[in-house]
Predict the structure.
Amino acid sequence: MNKKTIRDIDPRHRRLLVRVDFNVPLKDGHVADDTRIRAALPTIQYLLEKGGEVVLCSHLGRPKGGPDPKYSLKPVAERLSQLLGKPVPLTEDCVGPAAEHAAAAMLPGQVILLENVRFHPEEEKNDPAFAQRLSVLADLYVNDAFGSAHRAHASTEGVAHLLPGVAGFLMEKEIEYLGGAVDHPKHPYLAILGGAKISDKIGVIENLLGKADRVLIGGGMANTFLKAQGLAVGDSLVEDGSLDTARALLATAGGKLILPVDAVLGDKFDAGANRQTIAVAGGVPAGWRILDIGPETVKAFGAALQGAALVVWNGPMGVFEFPAFAAGTNAVAQLVAESGATTIIGGGESVAAVEQAGLADRMSHISTGGGASLEMLEGRTLPGVAALQDK
Protein backbone atom coordinates (compact mmCIF):
# COMPACT_ATOMS: atom_id res chain seq x y z
CA MET A 1 0.00 0.00 0.00
CA ASN A 2 1.51 3.33 -1.02
CA LYS A 3 -0.44 5.50 1.44
CA LYS A 4 0.90 6.78 4.76
CA THR A 5 -0.61 5.22 7.88
CA ILE A 6 -0.72 6.17 11.55
CA ARG A 7 2.63 4.36 11.92
CA ASP A 8 4.19 7.12 9.80
CA ILE A 9 3.18 9.97 12.13
CA ASP A 10 3.97 10.93 15.74
CA PRO A 11 0.62 11.43 17.51
CA ARG A 12 2.16 12.73 20.79
CA HIS A 13 0.56 16.00 21.90
CA ARG A 14 -1.21 16.21 18.53
CA ARG A 15 -4.94 16.42 18.05
CA LEU A 16 -6.18 13.93 15.47
CA LEU A 17 -9.50 14.10 13.63
CA VAL A 18 -10.30 10.42 13.05
CA ARG A 19 -13.07 9.56 10.58
CA VAL A 20 -14.57 6.23 11.65
CA ASP A 21 -17.55 4.26 10.38
CA PHE A 22 -19.92 4.11 13.34
CA ASN A 23 -23.00 3.75 11.12
CA VAL A 24 -24.32 0.92 13.30
CA PRO A 25 -27.83 -0.47 13.86
CA LEU A 26 -29.64 0.87 16.94
CA LYS A 27 -32.49 -0.74 18.87
CA ASP A 28 -34.38 0.84 21.79
CA GLY A 29 -31.71 3.52 22.17
CA HIS A 30 -28.79 1.06 22.28
CA VAL A 31 -26.25 -0.26 19.78
CA ALA A 32 -27.66 -3.53 18.38
CA ASP A 33 -24.43 -4.65 16.67
CA ASP A 34 -21.06 -3.17 17.67
CA THR A 35 -18.93 -4.87 14.96
CA ARG A 36 -18.00 -1.58 13.28
CA ILE A 37 -17.13 0.05 16.61
CA ARG A 38 -14.85 -2.85 17.53
CA ALA A 39 -13.23 -2.70 14.09
CA ALA A 40 -12.03 0.85 14.85
CA LEU A 41 -10.63 0.05 18.31
CA PRO A 42 -7.05 -0.85 17.23
CA THR A 43 -6.60 2.57 15.58
CA ILE A 44 -8.19 4.49 18.47
CA GLN A 45 -6.22 2.60 21.15
CA TYR A 46 -2.92 2.99 19.28
CA LEU A 47 -3.35 6.77 18.99
CA LEU A 48 -4.37 7.12 22.65
CA GLU A 49 -1.47 4.98 23.87
CA LYS A 50 0.94 7.15 21.84
CA GLY A 51 -0.34 10.26 23.63
CA GLY A 52 -2.63 11.58 20.93
CA GLU A 53 -5.84 13.56 21.51
CA VAL A 54 -8.50 11.73 19.48
CA VAL A 55 -11.47 13.56 17.98
CA LEU A 56 -13.75 10.95 16.38
CA CYS A 57 -16.30 11.76 13.69
CA SER A 58 -18.85 9.59 11.87
CA HIS A 59 -22.23 9.61 10.20
CA LEU A 60 -25.20 7.53 11.31
CA GLY A 61 -28.16 6.75 9.06
CA ARG A 62 -29.72 9.24 6.67
CA PRO A 63 -31.10 12.19 8.65
CA LYS A 64 -33.15 14.57 6.50
CA GLY A 65 -31.29 17.86 6.34
CA GLY A 66 -30.82 18.63 10.03
CA PRO A 67 -30.42 17.27 13.58
CA ASP A 68 -32.68 14.34 14.46
CA PRO A 69 -32.48 12.67 17.90
CA LYS A 70 -33.23 9.31 16.24
CA TYR A 71 -29.81 9.50 14.52
CA SER A 72 -27.79 10.82 17.45
CA LEU A 73 -24.46 9.10 18.13
CA LYS A 74 -25.19 9.12 21.88
CA PRO A 75 -25.69 5.31 22.10
CA VAL A 76 -22.43 4.87 20.16
CA ALA A 77 -20.51 7.10 22.60
CA GLU A 78 -21.89 5.02 25.49
CA ARG A 79 -20.89 1.71 23.88
CA LEU A 80 -17.44 3.02 22.90
CA SER A 81 -16.75 4.21 26.45
CA GLN A 82 -17.57 0.69 27.70
CA LEU A 83 -15.21 -0.88 25.14
CA LEU A 84 -12.37 1.56 25.83
CA GLY A 85 -12.90 1.63 29.61
CA LYS A 86 -12.80 5.44 29.64
CA PRO A 87 -15.33 8.26 29.17
CA VAL A 88 -16.14 9.29 25.60
CA PRO A 89 -17.98 12.63 25.74
CA LEU A 90 -20.32 13.39 22.83
CA THR A 91 -20.25 16.99 21.56
CA GLU A 92 -23.65 18.58 20.89
CA ASP A 93 -22.55 19.44 17.33
CA CYS A 94 -19.71 18.32 15.06
CA VAL A 95 -18.62 21.88 14.20
CA GLY A 96 -18.84 25.32 15.79
CA PRO A 97 -18.17 26.63 19.32
CA ALA A 98 -19.26 23.48 21.24
CA ALA A 99 -16.99 21.18 19.21
CA GLU A 100 -14.11 23.67 19.16
CA HIS A 101 -14.27 24.20 22.93
CA ALA A 102 -14.39 20.44 23.64
CA ALA A 103 -11.42 19.81 21.33
CA ALA A 104 -9.35 22.69 22.76
CA ALA A 105 -9.85 21.37 26.33
CA MET A 106 -8.47 17.89 25.52
CA LEU A 107 -5.39 16.33 27.11
CA PRO A 108 -3.13 13.57 25.69
CA GLY A 109 -4.83 10.17 25.91
CA GLN A 110 -8.34 11.64 25.84
CA VAL A 111 -11.06 10.93 23.26
CA ILE A 112 -14.27 12.72 22.25
CA LEU A 113 -16.94 11.85 19.68
CA LEU A 114 -18.48 14.54 17.48
CA GLU A 115 -22.22 14.43 16.87
CA ASN A 116 -23.44 13.01 13.53
CA VAL A 117 -21.76 14.85 10.62
CA ARG A 118 -24.84 14.27 8.46
CA PHE A 119 -26.86 16.63 10.67
CA HIS A 120 -25.31 19.17 8.25
CA PRO A 121 -26.37 18.77 4.59
CA GLU A 122 -22.99 20.30 3.64
CA GLU A 123 -21.28 17.02 4.66
CA GLU A 124 -22.64 15.02 1.72
CA LYS A 125 -22.12 17.97 -0.65
CA ASN A 126 -18.40 17.97 0.29
CA ASP A 127 -18.78 21.67 1.01
CA PRO A 128 -15.32 23.30 1.37
CA ALA A 129 -16.48 25.70 4.11
CA PHE A 130 -17.87 22.80 6.15
CA ALA A 131 -14.64 20.81 5.67
CA GLN A 132 -12.76 23.90 6.89
CA ARG A 133 -14.91 24.01 10.05
CA LEU A 134 -14.07 20.36 10.73
CA SER A 135 -10.36 20.87 10.03
CA VAL A 136 -9.92 23.55 12.74
CA LEU A 137 -10.59 20.85 15.37
CA ALA A 138 -7.28 19.04 14.78
CA ASP A 139 -3.68 19.06 13.53
CA LEU A 140 -3.80 15.76 11.64
CA TYR A 141 -6.46 13.69 9.86
CA VAL A 142 -6.87 9.91 10.00
CA ASN A 143 -9.34 8.06 7.77
CA ASP A 144 -10.33 4.66 9.18
CA ALA A 145 -13.80 4.60 7.61
CA PHE A 146 -13.36 2.25 4.66
CA GLY A 147 -17.14 1.74 4.44
CA SER A 148 -17.47 5.44 3.50
CA ALA A 149 -14.25 5.81 1.46
CA HIS A 150 -16.11 5.53 -1.86
CA ARG A 151 -18.00 8.73 -1.07
CA ALA A 152 -16.39 12.15 -1.61
CA HIS A 153 -17.91 13.84 1.46
CA ALA A 154 -16.48 16.63 3.60
CA SER A 155 -15.39 14.31 6.44
CA THR A 156 -14.07 11.54 4.14
CA GLU A 157 -12.36 13.55 1.38
CA GLY A 158 -12.63 17.32 1.83
CA VAL A 159 -10.76 17.48 5.17
CA ALA A 160 -7.84 15.47 3.75
CA HIS A 161 -7.00 18.47 1.53
CA LEU A 162 -6.79 20.75 4.59
CA LEU A 163 -4.96 18.54 7.10
CA PRO A 164 -2.18 15.98 6.51
CA GLY A 165 -4.18 12.74 6.04
CA VAL A 166 -3.13 9.16 6.78
CA ALA A 167 -4.87 5.76 6.94
CA GLY A 168 -5.87 3.99 10.14
CA PHE A 169 -5.24 0.28 10.68
CA LEU A 170 -8.67 -0.84 9.42
CA MET A 171 -8.34 1.23 6.24
CA GLU A 172 -4.82 -0.14 5.74
CA LYS A 173 -6.02 -3.76 6.07
CA GLU A 174 -8.91 -3.22 3.64
CA ILE A 175 -6.66 -1.61 1.02
CA GLU A 176 -4.03 -4.34 1.37
CA TYR A 177 -6.48 -7.22 0.93
CA LEU A 178 -8.84 -5.72 -1.66
CA GLY A 179 -6.13 -3.74 -3.45
CA GLY A 180 -4.04 -6.91 -3.60
CA ALA A 181 -6.93 -8.80 -5.20
CA VAL A 182 -7.19 -6.08 -7.86
CA ASP A 183 -3.51 -5.25 -8.54
CA HIS A 184 -1.52 -8.45 -7.95
CA PRO A 185 -3.82 -11.39 -7.19
CA LYS A 186 -2.50 -14.85 -6.40
CA HIS A 187 -3.56 -17.59 -8.83
CA PRO A 188 -5.64 -19.68 -9.20
CA TYR A 189 -7.97 -16.77 -8.38
CA LEU A 190 -11.70 -17.46 -7.97
CA ALA A 191 -14.48 -14.92 -7.58
CA ILE A 192 -17.93 -15.89 -6.31
CA LEU A 193 -20.67 -13.37 -7.02
CA GLY A 194 -24.26 -13.49 -5.83
CA GLY A 195 -27.00 -11.12 -4.77
CA ALA A 196 -30.04 -9.98 -6.65
CA LYS A 197 -28.89 -7.76 -9.50
CA ILE A 198 -26.41 -7.91 -12.36
CA SER A 199 -26.80 -4.15 -12.88
CA ASP A 200 -25.16 -3.46 -9.48
CA LYS A 201 -22.14 -5.57 -10.41
CA ILE A 202 -21.59 -5.22 -14.19
CA GLY A 203 -18.32 -3.34 -13.66
CA VAL A 204 -17.17 -5.89 -11.07
CA ILE A 205 -17.96 -8.86 -13.35
CA GLU A 206 -16.17 -7.23 -16.30
CA ASN A 207 -13.10 -6.41 -14.21
CA LEU A 208 -12.98 -9.85 -12.58
CA LEU A 209 -13.31 -11.68 -15.92
CA GLY A 210 -10.05 -9.97 -16.88
CA LYS A 211 -8.26 -10.96 -13.67
CA ALA A 212 -9.79 -14.10 -12.13
CA ASP A 213 -9.40 -17.65 -13.45
CA ARG A 214 -13.05 -18.49 -12.72
CA VAL A 215 -16.13 -16.42 -11.82
CA LEU A 216 -18.90 -18.42 -10.13
CA ILE A 217 -22.37 -16.85 -10.29
CA GLY A 218 -25.26 -17.58 -7.93
CA GLY A 219 -28.15 -15.70 -6.32
CA GLY A 220 -30.77 -13.71 -8.20
CA MET A 221 -28.25 -12.41 -10.74
CA ALA A 222 -27.73 -15.96 -12.05
CA ASN A 223 -31.38 -16.02 -13.19
CA THR A 224 -30.75 -13.21 -15.65
CA PHE A 225 -27.80 -15.16 -17.15
CA LEU A 226 -29.95 -18.31 -17.39
CA LYS A 227 -32.74 -16.43 -19.18
CA ALA A 228 -30.12 -14.85 -21.48
CA GLN A 229 -29.16 -18.39 -22.49
CA GLY A 230 -32.76 -19.03 -23.51
CA LEU A 231 -33.77 -21.09 -20.46
CA ALA A 232 -37.25 -20.82 -18.88
CA VAL A 233 -37.01 -19.25 -15.41
CA GLY A 234 -40.70 -19.20 -14.38
CA ASP A 235 -41.48 -16.47 -11.85
CA SER A 236 -37.82 -16.02 -10.84
CA LEU A 237 -36.40 -12.55 -10.23
CA VAL A 238 -34.90 -11.42 -13.57
CA GLU A 239 -33.56 -8.07 -14.78
CA ASP A 240 -34.97 -7.97 -18.29
CA GLY A 241 -33.13 -4.71 -18.94
CA SER A 242 -29.80 -6.49 -18.35
CA LEU A 243 -30.35 -9.48 -20.68
CA ASP A 244 -28.23 -7.98 -23.48
CA THR A 245 -25.46 -7.25 -20.98
CA ALA A 246 -25.64 -10.84 -19.72
CA ARG A 247 -25.40 -12.16 -23.30
CA ALA A 248 -22.38 -9.95 -23.98
CA LEU A 249 -20.66 -11.12 -20.78
CA LEU A 250 -21.36 -14.76 -21.64
CA ALA A 251 -19.92 -14.22 -25.14
CA THR A 252 -16.65 -12.72 -23.84
CA ALA A 253 -16.21 -14.94 -20.77
CA GLY A 254 -15.19 -18.11 -22.57
CA GLY A 255 -15.24 -20.89 -19.99
CA LYS A 256 -14.52 -18.56 -17.07
CA LEU A 257 -18.14 -17.96 -16.04
CA ILE A 258 -19.70 -20.85 -14.12
CA LEU A 259 -23.49 -20.75 -13.70
CA PRO A 260 -25.80 -22.94 -11.58
CA VAL A 261 -26.71 -26.34 -13.05
CA ASP A 262 -29.58 -26.94 -10.63
CA ALA A 263 -31.77 -24.84 -8.38
CA VAL A 264 -34.07 -25.03 -5.37
CA LEU A 265 -37.47 -23.57 -6.28
CA GLY A 266 -40.26 -22.13 -4.19
CA ASP A 267 -43.88 -21.67 -5.29
CA LYS A 268 -43.88 -18.19 -3.69
CA PHE A 269 -41.41 -15.74 -2.09
CA ASP A 270 -42.02 -16.92 1.44
CA ALA A 271 -40.14 -18.75 4.20
CA GLY A 272 -42.85 -21.43 4.21
CA ALA A 273 -43.04 -21.89 0.42
CA ASN A 274 -43.32 -25.39 -1.07
CA ARG A 275 -39.98 -26.55 -2.47
CA GLN A 276 -38.59 -28.64 -5.30
CA THR A 277 -35.12 -29.05 -6.80
CA ILE A 278 -34.70 -29.07 -10.59
CA ALA A 279 -31.95 -29.14 -13.22
CA VAL A 280 -31.96 -25.66 -14.77
CA ALA A 281 -31.51 -27.10 -18.30
CA GLY A 282 -35.11 -28.40 -18.11
CA GLY A 283 -36.45 -24.94 -17.25
CA VAL A 284 -38.40 -23.66 -14.25
CA PRO A 285 -42.12 -24.57 -14.28
CA ALA A 286 -44.68 -21.76 -14.43
CA GLY A 287 -45.64 -20.47 -10.98
CA TRP A 288 -42.26 -21.41 -9.44
CA ARG A 289 -39.18 -19.31 -8.79
CA ILE A 290 -35.48 -19.96 -8.12
CA LEU A 291 -34.65 -19.18 -4.46
CA ASP A 292 -31.34 -21.05 -3.98
CA ILE A 293 -28.64 -22.97 -5.83
CA GLY A 294 -29.01 -26.75 -5.76
CA PRO A 295 -26.68 -29.53 -4.48
CA GLU A 296 -25.16 -30.28 -7.93
CA THR A 297 -24.18 -26.61 -8.26
CA VAL A 298 -22.58 -26.73 -4.81
CA LYS A 299 -20.55 -29.76 -6.01
CA ALA A 300 -19.51 -27.92 -9.20
CA PHE A 301 -18.49 -24.84 -7.20
CA GLY A 302 -16.57 -27.09 -4.78
CA ALA A 303 -14.67 -28.65 -7.70
CA ALA A 304 -13.83 -25.19 -9.08
CA LEU A 305 -12.50 -24.12 -5.66
CA GLN A 306 -10.02 -27.02 -5.47
CA GLY A 307 -6.48 -25.65 -5.26
CA ALA A 308 -7.54 -21.98 -5.30
CA ALA A 309 -4.95 -19.53 -3.93
CA LEU A 310 -7.32 -16.54 -3.65
CA VAL A 311 -11.11 -16.46 -3.26
CA VAL A 312 -13.23 -13.29 -3.27
CA TRP A 313 -16.89 -13.69 -2.38
CA ASN A 314 -19.54 -10.99 -2.68
CA GLY A 315 -23.27 -11.74 -2.45
CA PRO A 316 -25.36 -14.70 -1.20
CA MET A 317 -26.34 -17.70 -3.35
CA GLY A 318 -30.05 -17.44 -2.59
CA VAL A 319 -32.63 -16.07 -0.17
CA PHE A 320 -30.53 -17.14 2.82
CA GLU A 321 -32.76 -15.19 5.24
CA PHE A 322 -35.30 -18.03 4.78
CA PRO A 323 -33.83 -21.16 6.47
CA ALA A 324 -35.44 -23.40 3.82
CA PHE A 325 -33.41 -21.60 1.11
CA ALA A 326 -30.12 -21.02 2.98
CA ALA A 327 -28.43 -24.36 2.24
CA GLY A 328 -26.61 -23.18 -0.89
CA THR A 329 -25.18 -20.06 0.74
CA ASN A 330 -24.17 -22.01 3.87
CA ALA A 331 -22.51 -24.73 1.78
CA VAL A 332 -20.52 -22.15 -0.21
CA ALA A 333 -19.45 -20.48 3.06
CA GLN A 334 -18.19 -23.88 4.25
CA LEU A 335 -16.37 -24.54 0.94
CA VAL A 336 -14.68 -21.12 1.06
CA ALA A 337 -13.66 -21.61 4.71
CA GLU A 338 -12.13 -25.02 3.91
CA SER A 339 -10.48 -23.97 0.64
CA GLY A 340 -7.05 -23.24 2.13
CA ALA A 341 -6.99 -20.05 0.02
CA THR A 342 -6.66 -16.44 1.06
CA THR A 343 -10.36 -15.56 1.44
CA ILE A 344 -11.90 -12.11 1.16
CA ILE A 345 -15.57 -11.62 2.00
CA GLY A 346 -16.86 -8.43 0.40
CA GLY A 347 -19.25 -6.63 2.67
CA GLY A 348 -23.01 -6.56 3.16
CA GLU A 349 -25.05 -9.74 2.93
CA SER A 350 -22.04 -12.02 2.35
CA VAL A 351 -20.72 -11.00 5.77
CA ALA A 352 -24.12 -11.72 7.36
CA ALA A 353 -24.16 -15.12 5.62
CA VAL A 354 -20.68 -16.04 6.85
CA GLU A 355 -21.53 -14.95 10.39
CA GLN A 356 -24.84 -16.85 10.26
CA ALA A 357 -22.90 -19.97 9.24
CA GLY A 358 -20.51 -19.43 12.19
CA LEU A 359 -17.48 -19.26 9.87
CA ALA A 360 -16.40 -15.61 10.16
CA ASP A 361 -13.24 -16.43 12.12
CA ARG A 362 -12.10 -18.83 9.38
CA MET A 363 -11.94 -16.16 6.65
CA SER A 364 -8.73 -14.20 5.97
CA HIS A 365 -10.50 -10.87 5.65
CA ILE A 366 -14.08 -9.70 6.09
CA SER A 367 -14.62 -6.29 4.54
CA THR A 368 -16.50 -3.63 6.52
CA GLY A 369 -17.65 -1.83 3.36
CA GLY A 370 -20.16 -3.27 0.90
CA GLY A 371 -20.25 -0.45 -1.65
CA ALA A 372 -16.60 0.47 -1.13
CA SER A 373 -15.40 -3.12 -1.57
CA LEU A 374 -17.44 -3.48 -4.79
CA GLU A 375 -15.96 -0.27 -6.21
CA MET A 376 -12.43 -1.45 -5.37
CA LEU A 377 -13.07 -4.84 -7.02
CA GLU A 378 -14.31 -2.90 -10.04
CA GLY A 379 -10.87 -1.28 -10.19
CA ARG A 380 -12.11 2.19 -9.28
CA THR A 381 -10.14 4.66 -7.14
CA LEU A 382 -11.89 5.54 -3.88
CA PRO A 383 -11.96 9.31 -3.20
CA GLY A 384 -11.37 8.82 0.55
CA VAL A 385 -8.23 6.78 -0.17
CA ALA A 386 -6.90 8.93 -3.02
CA ALA A 387 -6.95 12.05 -0.80
CA LEU A 388 -4.55 10.52 1.79
CA GLN A 389 -0.83 11.25 1.71
CA ASP A 390 1.39 8.99 -0.38
CA LYS A 391 4.34 7.32 1.31
Q: What stands out?
A: The chain has a mean pLDDT of 94. Residues 6-169 form a domain with the Rossmann fold fold (CATH 3.40.50.1260). Residues 15 and 150 are 25 Å apart (CA to CA). The first helix runs from residue 35 to 49.
